Structures are given as structure tokens and as C-alpha cells.
Amino acid sequence: MPIKIPNNLPAANILESENIFVMYEDRAYTQDIRPLKILLLNLMPTKITTETQLLRLLGNSPLQVEVDFIYTATYAPTNTPQEHLIKFYETFDAVRGRKYDGMIITGAPVEQMPFEQVAYWDELCQIMEWSKTHVYSTLHICWGAQAGLYYHYGIAKYDLPQKMFGVFPHKKVSGFQGKLFRGFDDVFYVPHSRHTEVRRKDIEKVPQLRIVAESDMAGVYTVTAQKGRQIFLTGHSEYDPLTLKAEYDRDVAQGLSIQIPLNYYPGDDPAQTPLVLWRSAANLLFSNWLNYYVYQETPFNLSSL
């Protein structure tokens, strides 16, 4: 089944070239079926790139998905054309009266700032509070996960001695029988690119939270709450094959101190083509979230949420 997207969204051409089944609004309106309604709060500066990454994963599912895009009104994005925002995005005020099957809150390049100093923090808090009553399952990614854990449960983030940068092996926590990682191998890989972390000892003090996947090297990866109505991912399963390369090349060009991303280049040689170790796990993760935590749980009539 397809992912339903606005007419002329730039991501469409890329997705269609990869044989991802997309359906434009005009065609979707002729079908007598209720698609899953997903809200994407895109906090990343390169919004078109992030849209494409997440739509690619949402579209690799037998479910029809309809996506609305929002950005924060309290911070004006500078790396995305204004005409793109006007055409495809709304602000929170425009959607606060709607209800959604699922929501994704992306990461943001503000992780080294205290939460309260982020320009749009108050607005983000309003959105996260609203999600508790207007969204069935919310997926938080990277800084979005740290922000959600801090706002909802008071979990602090800590600076790392050096950037967690690379592709790391992960495993499910022993005894976890939930469906989020159904079909996963015993070891699976996830990209990380962050300067801060949340710690197991803090999470274990909160009875509502459960750590369900982690890495010996990268630490806590997945935390769930409310039987999957809140899911927190500290890594970037959605990353493209060359996303880490782009970040590495950017930092090198700026003369910043940056280590070669781990488990990424063959022989740790940046002249080589990166190895993609995480694509199948990423597709399965998003498919499981949509199927088991959204589609099979939300009511047909969203107004009853």
C-alpha cells in the first residue's frame, strides 16, 4: 500500500525512483479507506532531506499512510526555502484541533544546549503535552527522544567526552517480548550522531519507563512507555547511506575535531564507499511501529481517542 503525500512534494520523485509506492492527494481522495494519519514535527534544519528519509520508511509498509507536516512557529527555519514551508507545512496552531494515529518528533542540532534555552522549547512542551491526548503513539528520535524523556519523565541528558558517531551493534534487552523488534536479528545496527546521552541508571528509576534495546558501545537505544504509546529512539535509523559521510565531510571542511565514524567506512578509510548495515532493521522497525503500535491499536474513528 502507498504513502499518501501532498501533490508536488519534492520527496516524491526520489521515492518513486526507489520504487516506493506513493499516492498523491488527488488519487487518495477517490478511495474508500481510512489511511493512518501521521503527524511529523520536523525539527531538523534540512527539512526536505529529513522528510525523504522518514517517508521512505513509512512508505515501505502494506498500510496506507497520510502525513501532515508541522514546524515550530517560534523559530524560523533558515535552511529550508520559505516557499516549501508555506506549501507543505503547517504550525501547531493549525493542527491542535485534530487527532492522529501516530506522530514523529525528529531530532534537532541543539543537543548541547540546556533544554530550556532552545528557542522553541515552550512550544515543543505544548506539543508534547498535546500528544498525550491527541496522538495514539508518538515516536521520538535522537534529540527528540531526549526532549521527550526530559519533559515527560524528568530524565536528564549528559555531555559525552566525544561525539557518539558511527554505526553501532545493538540488541534487544533480555526478556523483552514486545512487538517493536519482532523479526529482528539477535544483533542489529543503528547509526548514531550525538554529543549527549541519557543513562540507564536514571531511566531505571522511573517505573513507567522500560529500556527495550541497547548497545554496549552506544548505550540506551530504545525506551518505551504506556505500552508503546510513547517510544524514544536515541539513534538515527532513518539515516541515508551517505548522511554520516556528509556530516563528517562538513566537520572536516570546517576544521573541527571529528573522529571517523565507527563501523562505517571499510577499513576506516573515508575514501571508500560507506557500508550500509542498518537499512533492513530500519525498515522493519518503522513497519512494526506502524502495524503493531498504530494500525492495530487506534480506533477507526479518531475522535474517540
Automatic annotation (TrEMBL):
<feature type="active site" description="Acyl-thioester intermediate">
    <location>
        <position position="142"/>
    </location>
</feature>
<dbReference type="Pfam" id="PF04204">
    <property type="entry name" value="HTS"/>
</dbReference>
<dbReference type="InterPro" id="IPR029062">
    <property type="entry name" value="Class_I_gatase-like"/>
</dbReference>
<dbReference type="GO" id="GO:0005737">
    <property type="term" value="C:cytoplasm"/>
</dbReference>
<keyword id="KW-0012">Acyltransferase</keyword>
<feature type="binding site">
    <location>
        <position position="250"/>
    </location>
    <ligand>
        <name>substrate</name>
    </ligand>
</feature>
<feature type="active site">
    <location>
        <position position="238"/>
    </location>
</feature>
<keyword id="KW-0963">Cytoplasm</keyword>
<comment type="pathway">
    <text>Amino-acid biosynthesis; L-methionine biosynthesis via de novo pathway; O-acetyl-L-homoserine from L-homoserine: step 1/1.</text>
</comment>
<keyword id="KW-0808">Transferase</keyword>
<feature type="site" description="Important for substrate specificity">
    <location>
        <position position="193"/>
    </location>
</feature>
<feature type="active site" description="Proton acceptor">
    <location>
        <position position="236"/>
    </location>
</feature>
<dbReference type="GO" id="GO:0004414">
    <property type="term" value="F:homoserine O-acetyltransferase activity"/>
</dbReference>
<keyword id="KW-0486">Methionine biosynthesis</keyword>
<feature type="binding site">
    <location>
        <position position="163"/>
    </location>
    <ligand>
        <name>substrate</name>
    </ligand>
</feature>
<feature type="binding site">
    <location>
        <position position="193"/>
    </location>
    <ligand>
        <name>substrate</name>
    </ligand>
</feature>
<keyword id="KW-0028">Amino-acid biosynthesis</keyword>
<dbReference type="InterPro" id="IPR033752">
    <property type="entry name" value="MetA_family"/>
</dbReference>
<comment type="function">
    <text>Transfers an acetyl group from acetyl-CoA to L-homoserine, forming acetyl-L-homoserine.</text>
</comment>
<comment type="similarity">
    <text>Belongs to the MetA family.</text>
</comment>
<feature type="site" description="Important for acyl-CoA specificity">
    <location>
        <position position="111"/>
    </location>
</feature>
<dbReference type="GO" id="GO:0008899">
    <property type="term" value="F:homoserine O-succinyltransferase activity"/>
</dbReference>
<protein>
    <recommendedName>
        <fullName>Homoserine O-acetyltransferase</fullName>
        <ecNumber>2.3.1.31</ecNumber>
    </recommendedName>
</protein>
<dbReference type="GO" id="GO:0019281">
    <property type="term" value="P:L-methionine biosynthetic process from homoserine via O-succinyl-L-homoserine and cystathionine"/>
</dbReference>
<dbReference type="InterPro" id="IPR005697">
    <property type="entry name" value="HST_MetA"/>
</dbReference>
